Amino acid sequence: MRMELNQRRWSRREEVDFYRFISSFGVEYNKHRKQYDWNKFRVLSRLEKKTDESMTEYYNAFYTMLKRSCGLKVSEDEGMIIVFLC
């Protein structure tokens, strides 16, 4: 349970590294498995300790935040992601 809590909690350095690398390199999406491939991203951004689930949750919250800031429509499910991570 403690490890799961640590996965959800992001340090300021981890947030900055995530923002920097997502905006510079993006993330790969595997269409066959229907999930993101975080392997290269994790190594480049020095986020080796984060799980795929944690990275995907954070990415979804980041994407929702971008949609809101651009004035695009955000579904209720997407809005709950941000509340969940805050």
How would you portray this structure in words?
This protein has 86 residues and is mainly α. It has one domain (2-85). It is built from 5 helices and 2 strands, in the order H-H-E-E-H-H-H. It has helices at residues 2-8, 12-24, 39-44, 52-69, 76-85, and strands at residues 28-30, 35-37. The chain has a two-stranded antiparallel ribbon. A hairpin with a 4-residue loop joins strand 1 (28-30) and strand 2. Helix 4 (52-69) crosses helix 5 (76-85). The radius of gyration is 13 Å and the shape is globular. The two termini are 19 Å apart.
Helix content: 55-70%
Calculate the mean pLDDT score and round it: 84
Shape: globular
- Tell me the span between the first and last alpha carbons: 19 Å
> Uncertain runs with pLDDT below 50, 5 residues or more?
none
User: Which strands sit side by side, in order, in the main sheet?
Assistant: 1-2
Give the tally of β-strands.
Answer: 2
Our Rg estimate from Cα atoms comes to 13 Å
- Structural category is mainly alpha
Number of DSSP helical runs: 5
Number of domains: 1
Secondary-structure blueprint of this entry?
Layout (H helix, E strand, L loop, with lengths): L1 H7 L3 H13 L3 E3 L4 E3 L1 H6 L7 H18 L6 H10 L1
Antiparallel strand pairs: 1-2
Helix pairs in contact: 4-5
Using brief descriptors, characterize the structure shown.
single chain; globular; 7% strand; 5 helices; mainly alpha; 86 residues; two-stranded antiparallel ribbon
